[in-house]
């Protein structure tokens, strides 16, 4: 059972899972969830399958978001999470749960505020070439437009201190949310200590919700719009006074 009051090295850990019809993936995620996870928040995004029932049976907090979209689901889930550290992953079983304690160790022991996980070197099967190519194009444009290097701009596994949410301007309600999180967290070097680390990655259970061409081009245009400042400001997901960055702690 994932529910634990152990805390991990004095930190409460929340796992947030955006889910749009993930009845096949969710049991995989819960099957080997480490005890270091204190709270699981499943964001149901208009699922028509047994996603909600399965999430409740496993003891997760279920929140509903009726605005369709990966980013919309995440915004609702991240607001609801209560942990000092938030871990994210898809509800499809692709991301490695047993890496969570290792990533928490790196974050806490090395003093990072944001870790994004790179899937590119560790898949158990070579993935669809179009996805790999699309990801590389987006990584390249991030280097060109924002001047930092990321190997997997589309990865959905991040580990971060909840307190950094007040510094992130998260405008996207769609798949571009993933790259926007990295752009926001990795470009504020004075405020946020960020790192990209490799992980293992498996084939998904259930059907992918990614519309490769449409989401790929949208995410590319999103980078330009973000760079040109056309996206404006979104309200922060947590209030200004909430949480403290590690360097501000005594
Ligand atoms: N694409 C998409 N994913 C959503 C939505 N709402 C929640 N999700 C979840 O976001 C995660 C990422 O989507 P997924 O289909 O796995 O994309 P992929 O990892 O690129 O194949 C999954 O857990 C989805 O269930 C939505 O409206 N659109
Ligand atoms: Mg996925």
Report on this structure.
- The chain is an alpha/beta fold and 250 residues long.
- The protein has a single domain, classed as Spore Coat Polysaccharide Biosynthesis Protein SpsA, Chain A, CATH 3.90.550.10.
- 32% of the residues lie in helices and 14% in strands.
- The chain is built from seven helices and seven strands, in the order E-H-E-H-E-H-E-H-E-H-E-H-E-H.
- It has helices at 26-31, 51-57, 70-80, 100-110, 129-146, 177-187, 212-227; strands at 13-19, 39-44, 61-64, 85-88, 114-118, 158-161, 194-198.
- It has a seven-stranded mixed beta sheet, with helices on both faces.
- Helix 1 links the parallel strand 1 and strand 2 (39-44).
- Helix 5 packs parallel to helix 7 (212-227).
- The protein is globular.
- The model is unreliable at 244-250 (pLDDT under 50).
- The chain binds guanosine-5'-diphosphate and magnesium ion.
- Magnesium ion (MG) binds next to loops.
- Magnesium ion is lined by residues 90, 92, 94, 204.
Bound molecules: guanosine-5'-diphosphate, magnesium ion
Under the CATH scheme, which architecture would be assigned?
Alpha-Beta Complex
CATH class: Alpha Beta
* Beta-strand content estimate: 5-15%
CATH superfamily: Spore Coat Polysaccharide Biosynthesis Protein SpsA, Chain A
* Radius of gyration using CA atoms only: 17 Å
Q: How many domains, as an integer?
A: 1
How is this structure best summarized?
The protein is of the alpha/beta class and 250 residues long. The protein has helices at residues 26-31, 51-57, 70-80, 100-110, 129-146, 177-187, 212-227, and strands spanning 13-19, 39-44, 61-64, 85-88, 114-118, 158-161, 194-198.
């Amino acid at each position: 059972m994932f529910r634990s009051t152990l805390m991990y090295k004095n930190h409460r850990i929340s796992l947030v899972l955006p889910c749009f019809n993930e009845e096949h993936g969710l049991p995989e995620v819960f099957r080997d969830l480490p005890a270091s996870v204190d709270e699981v928040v499943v964001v149901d995004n208009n699922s028509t399958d047994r996603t909600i029932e399965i999430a409740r049976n496993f003891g997760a907090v279920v929140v509903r978001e009726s605005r369709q979209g990966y980013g919309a689901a995440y915004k609702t889930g991240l607001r609801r999470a209560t942990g000092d550290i938030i871990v994210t992953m898809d509800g499809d079983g692709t991301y490695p749960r047993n890496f969570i304690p290792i990533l928490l160790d790196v974050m806490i022991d090395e003093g990072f505020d944001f870790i994004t996980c790179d899937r590119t070197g560790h898949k158990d099967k070579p993935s669809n070439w179009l996805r790999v190519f699309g990801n590389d194009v987006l990584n390249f444009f991030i280097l060109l437009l924002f001047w930092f290097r990321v190997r997997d701009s589309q990865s959905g596994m991040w580990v971060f201190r909840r307190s950094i949410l007040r510094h992130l301007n998260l405008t996207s309600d769609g798949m571009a949310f993933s790259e926007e999180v990295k752009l926001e967290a990795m470009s504020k070097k004075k405020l946020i200590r960020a790192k990209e680390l490799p992980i293992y990655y498996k084939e998904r259970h259930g059907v992918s919700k990614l519309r490769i061409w449409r989401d790929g081009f949208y995410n590319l245009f999103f980078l330009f719009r973000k760079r040109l400042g056309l996206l404006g400001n979104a309200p922060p997901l947590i209030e200004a006074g909430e949480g403290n960055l590690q360097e501000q702690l005594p």
